[in-house]
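Need residues for this backbone.
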């Protein structure tokens, strides 16, 4: 229906967003269940090909579109969604505020004694990493590292053999790196990890969010916080975030 809707202009942007969210979530579930990317791409190609042959004014298509709109009535009332993954979950919240920034789509992570909140925040759904450091350390930079599909044939999923989330992150040579565009020494309290009184916030380019949405939901990204050591050398603390249903959660935020 997504393909037919796009071709024939059957649905509003909000409803199209709901269909995109459902499609992304279904794709993630299929991959986690063992389906291959090639199989799912084949299904999608066949669906697009079939949709292209159906006349926009056909009775069957009109009936199906009506059923989708009816089902959407209840979905449109949802304000929050939870998207569980293999090892972590995304929390989505469609509410927004003109004055108070808060998380729209977020995942929590702990690394050592430090804590991280990562995801989309504020009315402009900016991609942020906000961390609190147990020893009060203050990083001067942050980097977001993820697999580069142009350099690889698929995700690295060693954690499925019993390892931790870090084992599902691609090696550096097969990754692309996004540097934070801004550094906030005093992020809003609503963005801090639960119970934290201080922290550091970093904003990443919007392009990075688009790149995450194209990754396999089973793999992990690395958020690197860079510190200046006493000897002048760079030290790095790493947190790991599961890609999960980021694409589905981001599409859910477009529903209004």
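Answer:
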């Amino acid at each position: 229906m997504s393909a037919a809707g796009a071709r024939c202009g059957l649905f509003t942007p909000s409803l199209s967003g709901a269909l995109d969210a459902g499609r992304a979530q279904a794709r993630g579930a299929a991959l986690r269940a063992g389906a291959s990317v090639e199989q799912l791409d084949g299904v999608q190609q066949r669906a697009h090909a079939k949709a292209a042959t159906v006349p926009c004014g056909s009775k069957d298509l009109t009936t199906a579109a009506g059923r989708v709109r009816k089902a959407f009535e209840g979905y449109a009332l949802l304000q929050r969604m939870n998207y569980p993954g293999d090892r972590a979950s995304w929390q989505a919240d469609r509410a927004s505020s003109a004055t108070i920034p808060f998380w729209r789509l977020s995942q929590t992570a702990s690394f050592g004694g430090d804590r991280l909140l990562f995801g989309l925040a504020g009315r402009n759904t900016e991609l942020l990493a906000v961390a609190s450091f147990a020893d009060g350390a203050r990083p001067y930079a942050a980097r977001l590292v993820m697999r580069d599909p142009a350099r690889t044939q698929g995700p690295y999923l060693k954690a499925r053999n019993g390892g931790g989330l870090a084992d599902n992150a691609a090696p550096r040579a097969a990754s692309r790196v996004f540097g934070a565009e801004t550094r906030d020494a005093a992020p809003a309290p609503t963005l801090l990890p639960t119970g934290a009184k201080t922290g550091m916030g970093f904003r990443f380019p919007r392009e990075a969010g688009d790149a995450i949405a194209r990754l396999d939901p089973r793999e992990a990204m690395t958020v690197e916080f860079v510190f200046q050591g006493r000897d002048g050398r760079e030290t790095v603390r790493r947190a790991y975030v599961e890609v999960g249903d980021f694409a589905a959660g981001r599409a859910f935020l477009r529903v209004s």
